[in-house]
Amino acid sequence: MTRSRIVAWLRVLMPLAALALLSVLFLFGQKPAPEANIPYARVDPRDLAERQAVTHPTYAGVTGDGAELSITAAEGQPGVAGQPGRLEDVDLRLRAADGHVTLLSAGAALLQGTDLRLTDGVRMTTSDGWVLTGREFLGSTRAGTLRSDQQVTVQAPFGELTAGRMDLRPEGDGKGDHLLDLSGGVRLIYRP
Fold first, then answer.
1. pTM of the model
2. Which of 16, 17, 76, 129 could make an S-S bridge to 157, C-beta 3.0–4.6 Å?
3. pLDDT band at 38 (very low <50, low <70, confident <90, very high)
C-alpha cells in the first residue's frame, strides 16, 4: 500500500516540478537581442550591385616547364579598359616536377595576362624550410617564375638572410627543377 501512495504522489508532484522548472526558465531567462544574432555584411549594397566581382576564384594550370600551379583568392575583380584584374587574399601553390612545393600568400595581386604583381604582406614558403617575405613579388603563370626586385627577408634552415633581389625560376637543365637565386647585397646571419 505504501508503494501505491508514493507512485500516486509522484504522479502529481513530477508534472508540478516540471512546470515550476519551466516557469523559472521563462521568468529569469534573458531576452534575445535580435540585432546580435543576425550577422550583417559591412558593405554598401549599391556598391556590391554595381561592381563586378567573383568570390573564391580558383586557377589551376601547368607552367612551360611542367610545374603544377594553382592560385586561389577570396575575391577577384576583372580588369576593365586596359586596367589589370585584382585579386584579394591570394594563395599561390607551385609544385615543381622534382616534387618541391612553393607556397605564397599575399593580401592582393594585380593580374595582367599571365603576369602577377603580388603585394600587401607577401610571404613565400618552400618545402625545404625557407621563408621569404617582401613588399612585392612578380610572377609569371606561363613561365612558373617568381621574382622580387626589392629587398627580401629570408628565414633559412641555417640562419637569416637579407637580399636586394630574389628569383625563383626553372633550372636550365630542363628537368623541371626550380632554383632560388638571392642577389643584390646578400647578408647572412648564420645560426648553427
1. 0.69
2. 129
3. low
